[in-house]
């Protein structure tokens, strides 16, 4: 969890940090890792938990059910969110958020969108082929030609990042081929 906290994209604020600290150890014991904890909504707030399996296998409905029951029990006892809310537990999906440092390497080769906390050279949003993480820098090829149009963005400056849903990503997901492992 050290890399998760350093990047601080899994959780958004002190409230979701508290939820993360309550549920993460038990989910890890069950073989899951947190991808994202989000709390928001209008009249009926939603606590959204995205999980992956530590072994890299696909998340199933049974996984979501087990994680949801575990999370519900833990949060009922700790009660970090006093108001009524709905709990959603699921997989991050194909066009998943990139929230952990390892995600930038696991999904290298696929198209991604990266948004920075502060503009860099007048630009906050970048889109391109993800080249991985190197010495704390997210590397993106932003040119279709491949002509050395590579940007390097400090991972600590990333506000949010996600994969872009492309035919290539869909085909890779159907084949079960990412760089995870």
Element-by-element helix/strand order: HHEEHEHEEEEEH
Strand content: 25-35%
Q: Give the CATH superfamily of the largest domain.
A: RimP-like superfamily, N-terminal
What's the CATH topology label of the largest domain? Answer: GMP Synthetase, Chain A, domain 3
Q: What profile does the largest beta sheet have?
A: 5 strands, antiparallel
Strand order of the largest sheet: 7-6-5-4-8
**Over the alpha carbons, how many angstroms does the gyration radius reach?**
17 Å
Low-confidence stretches: 1-6
Average pLDDT rating: 89
Give helix % range. Answer: 25-40%
Shape: globular
Distance between the termini: 17 Å
The assigned CATH architecture of the largest domain is 2-Layer Sandwich
Total of DSSP H or I helical runs spanning 4+ residues: 5
Structural class: alpha+beta
Tell me the count of domains.
2
Number of strands: 8
Structure characterization notes:
This protein has 181 residues and is an alpha+beta fold. The chain has 2 domains: 2-90, GMP Synthetase, Chain A, domain 3; 101-175, Roll (SH3 type barrels), CATH 2.30.30. It has helices at residues 2-7, 14-29, 61-78, 101-106, 167-175; strands at residues 32-40, 46-53, 86-90, 111-120, 123-134, 137-141, 150-154, 158-163. It has a 5-stranded antiparallel beta sheet. It has a 3-stranded mixed beta sheet with strand order 1-2-3, with helices on one face. A hairpin with an 8-residue loop joins β6 and β7. α2 crosses α3 (61-78). The two termini are 17 Å apart. The relative contact order is 0.15. The model is unreliable at 1-6 (pLDDT under 50).
